Each structure stands twice: as structure tokens, then as C-alpha cells.
Amino acid sequence: MPDTEDKPIQNFIETIIEKDIADNKNGGRVHTRFPPEPNGYLHIGHAKSICLNFGLALKYNGLCNLRFDDTNPAKEDVEYVESIINDVRWLGFDWENRLYFASDYFRQFYEYAIQLIKDGNAYVCSLSTDEIREYRGTLTEPGIPSPYRNRSVEENLDLFERMKAGEFEEGTHLLRAKIDMASPNLNMRDPAIYRIKKAAHHRTGDTWCIYPMYDFAHGFEDSIERITHSICTLEFEDHRPLYDWFLDKLGVFHPQQIEFGRLNLTYTVMSKRKLLRLVEEGYVSGWDDPRMPTIAGLRRRGYTPESIRKFCEIIGVTKSFSISEISLLEYCLREDLNLRAQRVMAVLHPLKVTITNYPEGTVEMLDAVNNPEDESAGTRKIPFSRVIYIEQEDFMENPPKQFFRLSPGKEVRLKHAYYITCQQVIKDDDGNVIELLCTYDPQTRGGWSTDGRNVKGTSHWVSAAHAVDAEIRLYHHLFTVPNPEEAPEGKDFTANINPHSLEVLAGCKVEPSLVEAANGTVYQFLRQGYFSKDPDSTSDKLVFNRAVSLRDTWQKVKKNV
Ligand code: ATP
Ligand code: MG
Fold first, then answer.
1. Which fold has domain 346-460?
2. Is the CB–ligand 1 distance for residue 227 below 6 Å?
3. Domain boundary assignment for the chain
4. Which candidate, 61, 392, 413, 416, has a CA 20 to 30 Å from the CA of 253?
5. If you take atom 13 of ligand 1, which residue's CA is the nearest one?
């Protein structure tokens, strides 16, 4: 695997494409597509495919289509179509005017099927679903030909026409390709082409009651759009001979299929079917729950398109099975946000501090640097007053030697403000520290002393009178184990769900500048991590999601590989 600092090496698909261009195959054209099925929201695995397909088109001055593979009416929905369009655009890719739907080709698929029947390459089979499975054979035993295999062309045309006219019930007839029941590749044992399905389609309504199978339609979709390189994941390697067979029998344009290894990520699941279960069974709040590996979830959490694209670039493209570390994805986000996120102050577990020698009723507006990594981000004003909040963990009554923050008699710096010294600790009846009485040194405005005296500790803070209440949501891995698919005997992946993946902190205090920010804005809360403003925010209670903490676990992982 290329090191994160290295320039990515050419991947095997680029090698194939460059050879095709050199050979002037397809007149040197490069045309790819991203073909999602609108049966769920896109996830980070799809992002890999999107970056690959659109990225190749950009690199080789080609085109990339966005095509909905909507051949299965049962599970598809316009909500999914809209979310997918939104997500691909958000990731930063442009299909220009090339947005296509496989359902627009239904008439063409039907005509291809008729042609196969006429050429003796397809037949209507009237076995039941169970019988078809029995006749299919196994990996070690050849299949048995269907008794309907030798129906005449006329009979097949008639039955297929009547299937289309809605005369038969679902499951009574099936159009099958006539290939080879003894083939060692099970996909070639007379696979289904068309089935009866009396379901309304999200785009074609009730026009059709027969629908093409994915394996029949997919290669033709690419062919119709004159796709030069049909890039798909490894599971489809065994299907390639079938796609080739269909294209060759009909003598139509023949794209080249190339398979690559799909993205898997530790501590999460990736298939839409499983993600749908998480949503439907209430393990998460929806497809855009910030714990989900969906694009919508990552966006809500605070991920940027740049960080996702960078991640896809680093993991690269290979032909082998692999599992990527979720800490690498987090690393990419941290690197990106470090450059662009504005620094602000938020107190997650507030402790009241009264500065006894600071005049009552006075408010000073102090200057704060927005981003030390980016001078152009400028500065802002933050209010300072007599009563502030600091982080509970920034005070210790009996500190160990290495503790440089506040403790009785000790002096610390308040970021952007003053040095303060703790004079007195106030406790409740149970002995809990509820307030500190401190004094400040007016000579240290801005957080710097004029006499060369230095302090080791710096604390973040907010002015009590100005701070805004916030709920802060901390997220942990959705699953307790790196590979959730490995479930105990008799259980499935849901057995590995982390019951503590969401931790809600109420009563947090954030600086007032955050009220105006648009939902989705991501900040660095000093010393706490990166946080995005959640759409659940209201005018009197802000909600933030922790996108990622400041601590880098990827560098540690990398050292061990
Ligand atoms: P899932 O298994 O999650 O349901 P899918 O493959 O059925 O995914 P599609 O909508 O058919 O989902 O996928 C659209 C494209 O995205 C396909 O070309 C597919 O190969 C690719 N893709 C899906 N999952 C991944 C993944 N984990 N890594 C890389 N590419 C993927
Ligand atoms: Mg699929």
C-alpha cells in the first residue's frame, strides 16, 4: 500500500486504460459510469467507486455518467434517487447532462429479449422457483435441463408476449437464457432474463409487469451508453462470461468489464441491506445518523468531501480483498479540518469560576485568532467578564506533579484572556467542587505577561453571561469489534452493536459566535476535537456532533503495520 506521504502509484485499471488509449481502442475514448441501484443511501464504499469512475474520466479527459440501475421495482424509491444525486454532487463530481435511468431502456431490453428468443437463445420456463433451484445442480454436480427448454420459438414468443400482457401470476413463468446447464460457472446455467413482477415502478408506473434481471440488464445499460470501461467490484468477476455472452449473441457494442476489490472498513458494516436494517430496527436515528458510514451520515457528522476523496486516494485500487482502518478515514478528516476549521471555545463539563478582583458589570471584547494554520481566517471578538466557565478536568484540588492546570494557589493562562490564580475552592454539602474563586492579573491581557513570568497551563473558557447552552453528541464506533460480520454462533452482525456508541452531554457551554453559524459548519473546539453544528439546533439550544477527536490513532496503527 502506498504510504500516505507518497504520490499514489498508477493502479492496475489506469494501466489497462493507458494501454487501450495507446492501442486506439474505442478511438481512444474513455467513458465510465457510476451505476447505483436506488435502494438505499450511498455509503463510503460507493464513494470509492465514485472517486474511481469520475476520477478516471477526469484524468483521461473522458466522460462519466451517473446512471440509476433501477430494474427492481420492489425496493426502489425516489427518496433514494434524490439522496444519491445530492451525495455524488456533494462529493464534488459532475455528470453534466448525462443522468440516466436503466428504466428508460426497458423497451430496448424487451426487444433484446425477443431477439434472443427468435435466435433460439432464450426460452420461457414454467418450472416453479423451487424446481428451478433443484434443477440447477451444485458446484460439484451439473444441472438438469428444464423440460421446457426445447419449446418452439413460436410458443416462446407467444408465452413471453402473454407474460408481458399480465396474463400470468408471478412465479409461474420465467424467461431464461439457453446456455449450458452443465457449465462449471453456475451463472451460465440458463440464468433468468425476465420475471413477472406485478409491482409499480418509481418511474414507469404500471407500464410493465415483467422486469429484466440485473444480470441481463446491466451489460446492456453499459453497451447502450457506449461505456468503454465498466468498472465493478470483484463479486461480478464470475458474471462477466454471462455479460459477454449476452453482448456477443446480440452483436452490440461491447464494453470492457474490469473488477476491483470493494472497500471494507473496520468497526462498521457496508452493505445497504444491513444499513437498512440498522435504520428500520432503530439502532440508529436514520440514514444520516452521524454514526452511519453513509455519505449523508458522514456529512452530518462533519466530514468534508475533500477528506473523503483523500481517503479514497490513499487506499488506492487493487484486485484483492482488503479491510481499511476506520482510523485512516479519521486521520484524513483531521488533516483536512486542521487547515480549514475555525477554532472556538466550548466547555463540555462546566465549572464556574468567579474572578473576584474583576469589576462587576464590565465586559471586555478580546481578540481571538480564528485559525493559526490560516492567517486569512482573521480574528474575532470574544466577551470576557467576571464569571466564566472552565472545564471541570482543568482543575484539581490535590494535583499530581505533572498537572499544570488550575489548583489552589496555582496560576494558569486563560486562552486569549488573562492569567488567573485560584484563591478559594467552594464545595457543596457532598464535597463536590462547584465553584472557584480566582484573581486575575490585569497586566496579562491577551494571555501574555509583561514581566517575563510564564505559566505552563492554558485553559479554554467561556463567559457565563454570554455563553450559549449546547448539547454535544460524542460518537464511538457503532460496533464493538473490528469485523462485525464475525458474530457468535447463531447470531448476526447486530449482536456486535455497541450499546454505548452515542454519548450525549447536556449543559455544555459554547461561545456566542456559534449561534449565527449555519448548520453543518465544522469547528475545532480548542483541545476537544472537531465538531459540526447539527440541524437539530434551535435558537436557544445548539447541538453539536463530534466529528473526530484531536488524538490521532492512525499514526499508531500505521507504525504497527
Ligand atoms: P451494497 O452491497 O452496499 O448494497 P451494491 O453493490 O449493491 O452495494 P450498487 O448500488 O449496486 O450497490 O452499487 C453501485 C456501485 O458502487 C457499483 O458499481 C458497486 O460495485 C459499487 N460499490 C458498492 N459497494 C462498494 C464498496 N464497498 N466498495 C467499492 N465499490 C462499491
Ligand atoms: Mg447491488
1. Ribosomal Protein L25; Chain P (2.40.240)
2. no
3. 12-260, 272-342+470-560, 346-460
4. 61
5. 36
Please identify every stretch of the chain with a pLDDT value under 50, giving residue numbers as ranges: 1-4, 561
Q: Which residues contact 192 (CB under 8 A, 6 or more apart)?
A: 174, 175, 176, 213, 216
Q: Which ligand is nearest to the CA of 236?
A: 1
Return the CATH class of domain 272-342+470-560.
Answer: mainly beta
- CA distance to 40, 272, 291, per residue, from 278 (Å): 12, 10, 11
Residues with CB under 5 A from ligand 2 (ion): 37
How far is the centre of ligand 1, averaged over its atoms, from the C-alpha of 517 (Å)? 35
Q: Is 272 a catalytic residue?
A: yes
Q: Is 61 left (phi over 0), alpha (psi -120 to 50) or beta?
A: left
Tell me the C-alpha distance between 518 and 202, whole Å: 34
C-beta of 239 in contact with ligand 1 (< 6 A): no
Alpha-carbon distance of 287 to 297, in angstroms, equals 7
Atom number in ligand 1 closest to CA 264: 27
Task: Specify whether 37 is catalytic.
Answer: yes
Q: Whose CA is nearest to atom 27 of ligand 1?
A: 45
pLDDT in tens, 342-373: 999 999 999 999 999 999 999 999 999 999 99
Which tens digits make up the pLDDT trace of 201-220? 999 999 999 999 999 999 99
346-460 has the same fold as 272-342+470-560: yes
Ligand 1 contact via 293 beta carbon (within 6 Å): no
The residues near 490 (Cβ < 8 Å, ≥ 6 apart) are none
Instruction: Give the separation between CA 203 and CA 388, rounded to whole angstroms.
Output: 58
Identify which ligand lies nearest to the alpha carbon of 262. Answer: 1
Quote the pLDDT of residue 557: 63
Cell of 247: 453482448
Give me the pLDDT at residue 260, please.
98
**Pocket residue to mutate for ligand 1, from 233, 234, 243, 274, most atoms within 8 A of Cβ:** 233
Distance CA 238, CA 199 (A): 30
Q: Where are the beta strands (DSSP E) in 84-144?
A: 99-101, 122-125
Cβ burial of 144 (10 Å; 0-12, 13-18, 19+) is: middle
* Burial zone of 508 (CB within 10 Å; 0-12 exposed, 13-18 middle, 19+ buried): buried
236 alpha carbon to ligand 1 midpoint, in Å? 11
Catalytic residue among 14, 18, 37, 364: 37
Grid cell locating 139: 458446484
Q: Is residue 410 within 6 Å of ligand 1 at its C-beta?
A: no
- Specify burial of residue 527 (Cβ count, 10 A radius: 0-12, 13-18, 19+): middle
H-helix or E-strand spanning residue 229: strand 229-233
CATH topology of domain 12-260: Rossmann fold (3.40.50)
Query: Which grid cell is 204?
Result: 414507469
